[in-house]
Amino acid sequence: MDPRQALDGKAAAIMTVLCLIWGLQQVVLKMAAPDVTPLMLIALRSGAAALLVWALMRWRGERIDLALWRPGLVVGTLFGIEFVLVGEGLRFTSAAHMVVLLYTAPIFVALGLHWKLPAERLSRVQWGGIGLAFVGIVVTFAGRGGEAAPADWSRVLWGDLLALLAGAAWGATTVAVRLSRLAQAPATLTLLYQLVGGFAVLIGAAGLLGQWHFNSTPVAWLSLLFQAVVVSFFSYLTWFWLLKRYLASRLGVFSFLTPLFGMLFGVWLLDEPLEASFVAGTVLVLAGVAVVSGYGWWRQRRAGAAR
Predict the structure, then answer these.
(1) Which of 6, 38, 250, 282 is the most buried (most CB within 10 A)?
(2) How much helix, strand and coil, in percent to the nearest 5, is found in the chain?
(3) How far, in whole angstroms, is CA 190 from its chain's centroid?
(4) What pLDDT score was predicted for residue 1?
Protein backbone atom coordinates (compact mmCIF):
# COMPACT_ATOMS: atom_id res chain seq x y z
CA MET A 1 0.00 0.00 0.00
CA ASP A 2 1.30 3.47 -0.91
CA PRO A 3 2.32 5.24 2.35
CA ARG A 4 1.87 8.61 0.69
CA GLN A 5 -1.30 10.46 1.58
CA ALA A 6 -3.75 12.70 -0.25
CA LEU A 7 -3.30 16.45 -0.01
CA ASP A 8 -4.35 18.16 3.20
CA GLY A 9 -4.55 21.87 4.00
CA LYS A 10 -0.89 22.01 5.03
CA ALA A 11 0.35 20.49 1.76
CA ALA A 12 -1.94 22.71 -0.31
CA ALA A 13 -0.65 25.83 1.43
CA ILE A 14 3.01 24.78 0.97
CA MET A 15 2.45 23.97 -2.73
CA THR A 16 0.83 27.35 -3.30
CA VAL A 17 3.87 29.07 -1.77
CA LEU A 18 6.22 26.95 -3.92
CA CYS A 19 4.30 27.84 -7.08
CA LEU A 20 4.54 31.52 -6.14
CA ILE A 21 8.31 31.16 -5.74
CA TRP A 22 8.73 29.28 -9.03
CA GLY A 23 6.52 31.76 -10.87
CA LEU A 24 8.58 34.64 -9.49
CA GLN A 25 12.05 33.27 -10.28
CA GLN A 26 12.01 34.14 -14.02
CA VAL A 27 10.72 37.63 -13.20
CA VAL A 28 13.56 38.18 -10.71
CA LEU A 29 16.10 37.08 -13.33
CA LYS A 30 14.63 39.62 -15.75
CA MET A 31 14.52 42.39 -13.13
CA ALA A 32 18.18 41.89 -12.21
CA ALA A 33 19.36 41.70 -15.85
CA PRO A 34 20.68 45.32 -15.98
CA ASP A 35 23.04 44.48 -13.08
CA VAL A 36 23.81 40.79 -13.67
CA THR A 37 23.20 38.74 -16.80
CA PRO A 38 20.63 35.96 -16.34
CA LEU A 39 23.20 33.34 -17.34
CA MET A 40 25.71 34.56 -14.75
CA LEU A 41 23.07 34.81 -12.04
CA ILE A 42 21.85 31.25 -12.67
CA ALA A 43 25.44 29.96 -12.65
CA LEU A 44 26.19 31.67 -9.33
CA ARG A 45 22.94 30.49 -7.76
CA SER A 46 23.70 26.89 -8.79
CA GLY A 47 27.16 27.05 -7.25
CA ALA A 48 25.93 28.66 -4.03
CA ALA A 49 23.01 26.25 -3.70
CA ALA A 50 25.35 23.28 -4.30
CA LEU A 51 27.44 24.39 -1.31
CA LEU A 52 24.30 24.66 0.82
CA VAL A 53 23.13 21.17 -0.18
CA TRP A 54 26.61 19.75 0.49
CA ALA A 55 26.61 21.38 3.96
CA LEU A 56 23.17 19.92 4.67
CA MET A 57 24.35 16.45 3.64
CA ARG A 58 27.38 16.75 5.92
CA TRP A 59 25.16 17.84 8.80
CA ARG A 60 22.85 14.86 8.22
CA GLY A 61 25.75 12.46 7.87
CA GLU A 62 24.84 11.59 4.27
CA ARG A 63 27.66 10.52 1.99
CA ILE A 64 28.22 11.48 -1.64
CA ASP A 65 27.92 8.27 -3.66
CA LEU A 66 30.55 8.68 -6.38
CA ALA A 67 29.46 5.37 -7.92
CA LEU A 68 26.57 7.33 -9.43
CA TRP A 69 28.83 9.79 -11.23
CA ARG A 70 27.78 8.65 -14.71
CA PRO A 71 24.03 9.33 -14.35
CA GLY A 72 24.99 12.33 -12.21
CA LEU A 73 27.04 13.71 -15.09
CA VAL A 74 24.13 13.21 -17.49
CA VAL A 75 21.50 14.92 -15.32
CA GLY A 76 23.92 17.69 -14.33
CA THR A 77 24.71 18.43 -17.97
CA LEU A 78 21.04 18.42 -18.96
CA PHE A 79 20.22 20.64 -15.99
CA GLY A 80 22.91 23.07 -17.10
CA ILE A 81 21.70 23.07 -20.71
CA GLU A 82 18.17 23.82 -19.55
CA PHE A 83 19.25 26.92 -17.71
CA VAL A 84 21.64 28.07 -20.43
CA LEU A 85 18.55 28.13 -22.65
CA VAL A 86 16.57 29.93 -19.92
CA GLY A 87 19.30 32.53 -19.40
CA GLU A 88 19.70 33.22 -23.10
CA GLY A 89 15.97 33.10 -23.76
CA LEU A 90 15.26 35.79 -21.17
CA ARG A 91 17.46 38.18 -23.17
CA PHE A 92 14.93 38.05 -26.00
CA THR A 93 11.51 37.18 -24.62
CA SER A 94 9.43 38.14 -21.61
CA ALA A 95 9.41 36.40 -18.25
CA ALA A 96 5.73 35.50 -18.79
CA HIS A 97 6.53 33.76 -22.09
CA MET A 98 9.48 31.97 -20.51
CA VAL A 99 7.60 30.50 -17.55
CA VAL A 100 4.67 29.26 -19.66
CA LEU A 101 6.78 27.60 -22.35
CA LEU A 102 9.23 26.20 -19.79
CA TYR A 103 6.33 24.40 -18.12
CA THR A 104 5.70 22.31 -21.22
CA ALA A 105 8.27 19.97 -19.60
CA PRO A 106 5.63 17.42 -18.44
CA ILE A 107 4.73 16.85 -22.10
CA PHE A 108 8.33 15.93 -22.92
CA VAL A 109 8.55 13.73 -19.81
CA ALA A 110 5.43 11.83 -20.86
CA LEU A 111 6.77 11.34 -24.39
CA GLY A 112 10.18 10.18 -23.16
CA LEU A 113 8.79 7.69 -20.65
CA HIS A 114 6.25 6.42 -23.19
CA TRP A 115 9.06 5.05 -25.35
CA LYS A 116 11.15 3.69 -22.47
CA LEU A 117 8.77 2.27 -19.85
CA PRO A 118 5.83 -0.01 -20.73
CA ALA A 119 4.04 1.08 -17.54
CA GLU A 120 4.16 4.70 -18.73
CA ARG A 121 2.49 4.15 -22.10
CA LEU A 122 0.29 7.05 -23.09
CA SER A 123 -3.44 6.49 -23.50
CA ARG A 124 -5.46 7.92 -26.36
CA VAL A 125 -6.76 10.61 -24.02
CA GLN A 126 -3.19 11.62 -23.13
CA TRP A 127 -2.20 11.69 -26.80
CA GLY A 128 -5.14 14.04 -27.26
CA GLY A 129 -3.72 16.21 -24.47
CA ILE A 130 -0.35 16.31 -26.22
CA GLY A 131 -2.09 17.34 -29.43
CA LEU A 132 -3.94 20.08 -27.55
CA ALA A 133 -0.70 21.38 -26.04
CA PHE A 134 0.96 21.31 -29.48
CA VAL A 135 -1.86 23.41 -30.92
CA GLY A 136 -1.42 25.80 -27.99
CA ILE A 137 2.31 26.12 -28.73
CA VAL A 138 1.52 26.89 -32.38
CA VAL A 139 -0.97 29.55 -31.29
CA THR A 140 1.51 31.19 -28.90
CA PHE A 141 4.10 31.35 -31.67
CA ALA A 142 1.54 32.62 -34.17
CA GLY A 143 0.03 36.07 -34.01
CA ARG A 144 3.40 37.76 -33.57
CA GLY A 145 3.87 41.11 -35.19
CA GLY A 146 0.89 43.43 -35.06
CA GLU A 147 2.19 46.94 -34.57
CA ALA A 148 5.68 45.80 -33.57
CA ALA A 149 8.59 45.93 -36.00
CA PRO A 150 9.62 42.56 -37.51
CA ALA A 151 13.01 42.81 -35.80
CA ASP A 152 11.29 43.08 -32.41
CA TRP A 153 8.88 40.18 -32.76
CA SER A 154 11.51 37.98 -34.40
CA ARG A 155 13.67 38.44 -31.27
CA VAL A 156 10.71 37.45 -29.08
CA LEU A 157 10.08 34.45 -31.33
CA TRP A 158 13.70 33.34 -30.90
CA GLY A 159 13.44 33.73 -27.13
CA ASP A 160 10.23 31.71 -27.11
CA LEU A 161 11.93 28.93 -29.08
CA LEU A 162 14.76 28.84 -26.52
CA ALA A 163 12.14 28.66 -23.74
CA LEU A 164 10.47 25.70 -25.42
CA LEU A 165 13.83 23.95 -25.83
CA ALA A 166 14.50 24.62 -22.12
CA GLY A 167 11.24 22.83 -21.34
CA ALA A 168 12.43 19.89 -23.46
CA ALA A 169 15.77 19.85 -21.59
CA TRP A 170 13.95 19.90 -18.25
CA GLY A 171 11.83 16.98 -19.42
CA ALA A 172 14.95 15.10 -20.54
CA THR A 173 16.52 15.66 -17.11
CA THR A 174 13.47 14.17 -15.38
CA VAL A 175 13.48 11.16 -17.72
CA ALA A 176 17.23 10.63 -17.15
CA VAL A 177 16.71 10.62 -13.37
CA ARG A 178 13.75 8.26 -13.63
CA LEU A 179 15.61 5.75 -15.82
CA SER A 180 18.83 5.72 -13.77
CA ARG A 181 19.86 4.61 -10.29
CA LEU A 182 19.40 8.20 -9.16
CA ALA A 183 15.69 7.42 -8.93
CA GLN A 184 16.47 5.45 -5.72
CA ALA A 185 19.10 7.86 -4.41
CA PRO A 186 18.41 10.45 -1.69
CA ALA A 187 16.89 13.66 -3.06
CA THR A 188 19.81 15.69 -1.73
CA LEU A 189 22.31 13.64 -3.75
CA THR A 190 20.30 13.96 -6.98
CA LEU A 191 19.95 17.70 -6.42
CA LEU A 192 23.66 18.04 -5.66
CA TYR A 193 24.63 16.32 -8.92
CA GLN A 194 22.28 18.62 -10.83
CA LEU A 195 23.56 21.77 -9.18
CA VAL A 196 27.27 20.94 -9.52
CA GLY A 197 26.90 19.84 -13.14
CA GLY A 198 24.71 22.83 -13.87
CA PHE A 199 27.25 25.22 -12.36
CA ALA A 200 30.05 23.79 -14.52
CA VAL A 201 28.00 24.03 -17.73
CA LEU A 202 26.62 27.48 -16.92
CA ILE A 203 29.88 29.11 -15.90
CA GLY A 204 31.50 27.73 -19.05
CA ALA A 205 28.64 29.01 -21.20
CA ALA A 206 28.81 32.42 -19.53
CA GLY A 207 32.49 32.65 -20.49
CA LEU A 208 31.97 31.47 -24.08
CA LEU A 209 29.03 33.82 -24.65
CA GLY A 210 30.60 36.81 -22.91
CA GLN A 211 27.88 36.86 -20.22
CA TRP A 212 30.19 37.54 -17.28
CA HIS A 213 28.61 40.87 -16.28
CA PHE A 214 27.97 41.26 -12.53
CA ASN A 215 27.53 44.77 -11.20
CA SER A 216 27.75 44.65 -7.40
CA THR A 217 24.47 46.39 -6.49
CA PRO A 218 21.85 45.64 -3.83
CA VAL A 219 19.53 44.36 -6.58
CA ALA A 220 22.17 41.93 -7.86
CA TRP A 221 22.98 40.54 -4.41
CA LEU A 222 19.36 40.30 -3.27
CA SER A 223 18.49 38.52 -6.51
CA LEU A 224 21.34 36.06 -5.99
CA LEU A 225 20.24 35.45 -2.39
CA PHE A 226 16.66 34.78 -3.50
CA GLN A 227 17.68 32.52 -6.39
CA ALA A 228 20.25 30.48 -4.43
CA VAL A 229 18.64 30.14 -1.01
CA VAL A 230 14.91 30.41 -1.69
CA VAL A 231 14.64 28.85 -5.17
CA SER A 232 17.49 26.38 -5.67
CA PHE A 233 17.86 25.26 -2.03
CA PHE A 234 14.67 25.76 -0.03
CA SER A 235 11.99 25.26 -2.71
CA TYR A 236 13.60 22.21 -4.36
CA LEU A 237 14.21 20.42 -1.06
CA THR A 238 10.69 21.26 0.12
CA TRP A 239 9.33 19.82 -3.13
CA PHE A 240 11.25 16.58 -2.58
CA TRP A 241 9.97 16.49 1.03
CA LEU A 242 6.39 16.78 -0.22
CA LEU A 243 6.93 14.03 -2.81
CA LYS A 244 7.94 11.60 -0.04
CA ARG A 245 4.78 12.27 1.97
CA TYR A 246 2.03 13.05 -0.51
CA LEU A 247 0.77 11.57 -3.77
CA ALA A 248 2.71 13.01 -6.71
CA SER A 249 -0.37 13.18 -8.95
CA ARG A 250 -2.14 15.44 -6.44
CA LEU A 251 0.91 17.67 -6.06
CA GLY A 252 1.33 17.89 -9.83
CA VAL A 253 -2.09 19.49 -10.21
CA PHE A 254 -0.91 22.43 -8.11
CA SER A 255 2.18 22.96 -10.29
CA PHE A 256 -0.10 24.34 -13.02
CA LEU A 257 -0.42 27.47 -10.87
CA THR A 258 3.24 28.33 -11.57
CA PRO A 259 2.83 29.60 -15.17
CA LEU A 260 -0.22 31.60 -14.10
CA PHE A 261 1.70 33.23 -11.25
CA GLY A 262 4.61 33.85 -13.63
CA MET A 263 2.36 35.66 -16.10
CA LEU A 264 0.79 37.77 -13.34
CA PHE A 265 4.17 38.72 -11.85
CA GLY A 266 5.50 39.59 -15.31
CA VAL A 267 2.59 41.92 -16.01
CA TRP A 268 2.58 43.41 -12.50
CA LEU A 269 6.30 43.85 -11.79
CA LEU A 270 7.75 44.23 -15.29
CA ASP A 271 4.78 45.79 -17.08
CA GLU A 272 5.00 43.07 -19.74
CA PRO A 273 2.28 43.05 -22.42
CA LEU A 274 0.19 39.96 -23.01
CA GLU A 275 -0.86 39.33 -26.60
CA ALA A 276 -4.28 37.77 -27.16
CA SER A 277 -2.71 34.92 -29.13
CA PHE A 278 -0.31 34.17 -26.29
CA VAL A 279 -3.08 34.10 -23.69
CA ALA A 280 -5.18 31.78 -25.89
CA GLY A 281 -2.18 29.55 -26.54
CA THR A 282 -1.37 29.43 -22.83
CA VAL A 283 -4.87 28.18 -22.02
CA LEU A 284 -4.49 25.40 -24.59
CA VAL A 285 -0.98 24.45 -23.42
CA LEU A 286 -1.99 24.26 -19.76
CA ALA A 287 -5.13 22.30 -20.65
CA GLY A 288 -3.03 19.81 -22.62
CA VAL A 289 -0.49 19.45 -19.82
CA ALA A 290 -3.34 18.97 -17.32
CA VAL A 291 -4.81 16.16 -19.44
CA VAL A 292 -1.45 14.39 -19.80
CA SER A 293 -0.41 14.75 -16.17
CA GLY A 294 -3.80 14.39 -14.52
CA TYR A 295 -5.20 11.43 -16.47
CA GLY A 296 -3.69 8.84 -14.12
CA TRP A 297 -5.11 10.64 -11.09
CA TRP A 298 -8.53 10.85 -12.76
CA ARG A 299 -8.51 7.11 -13.56
CA GLN A 300 -7.57 6.23 -9.97
CA ARG A 301 -10.33 8.43 -8.60
CA ARG A 302 -12.87 6.97 -11.00
CA ALA A 303 -11.81 3.42 -10.12
CA GLY A 304 -12.10 4.23 -6.41
CA ALA A 305 -15.59 5.66 -6.88
CA ALA A 306 -16.68 2.51 -8.74
CA ARG A 307 -15.79 0.23 -5.82
Answers:
(1) 38
(2) 80, 0, 20
(3) 16
(4) 45
